[in-house]
Structure formats: C-alpha cells, structure tokens
Amino acid sequence: MIRNVVMGRVREGVPAEQVEAAIQALRDLTVDGVAFRLVGGQDRGLREGNASFALTADFVDDEAYRIYDADPEHNRIRRELFAPIAASIDRIQFALPDDL
Questions:
Q1: DSSP notation for 79-92
Q2: Which of 14, 36, 65, 92 is the most exposed place for a label (fewest CB within 10 A)?
Q3: pLDDT by residue (tens digit) across 46-68?
Q4: What are the φ and ψ backbone dihedral angles of 20, each rounded to 5 degrees?
Q5: Which helix (H) or strand (E) holds 67?
Q6: 59: how many CB neighbours lie within 10 A of its CB?
Q7: Does the pLDDT of residue 100 top 80, yes or no?
Q8: CB atoms within 10 A of CB 48
C-alpha cells in the first residue's frame, strides 16, 4: 500500500472557500481503473506555522499511484484549482506497513 501526502501553503488573501473548493474537487475525483481513498482538509489553526491544507491518498501499489498522478482530470485540478492559490506544495509517497 502506498500513501501519498500533500501539504500546501496558500497565497495571502486566498479565501477559505476557494481552498475548500479545490480540496473538494480532489475528494470527488474518480480515476478509471484505480481505487483510492483520499481525505483532506484545511488547517484548524491550532499551531502557528502549519501548512494551510493537507491531503492523503492511499493506493494499492506504485502503479496505481502513477495512473492517478498522470490522470488528465487530476492534472486539470492541480493546474486550474491549486496552482493559482498555492504559494508552495510539498509531496511525499511512502509504503505503508503491511499490518495496517
């Protein structure tokens, strides 16, 4: 199992509703032939210096992640909804232990 983690900071002045719309677009995304579970949300502001939002998505293997990563609709969401609002985005993909 592969977990993809994305954390981002939004540009100054971006309304929370616009961030939520971008996150919701990924929550609603389906990719033909790939089952995945994506959760995400905006920072609650409980600690100073946190990222603005985070997303996690779990995939059965590396190939499923690669298909998701190359999906045209996924890339449209990144390009049209996240790129205009993001000051920075960090990503990591790692293998989950088999006992989870």
A1: IIIITTTEEEEEEE
A2: 92
A3: 999 999 999 999 999 999 999 99
A4: -60, -40
A5: helix 62-70
A6: 24
A7: no
A8: 5
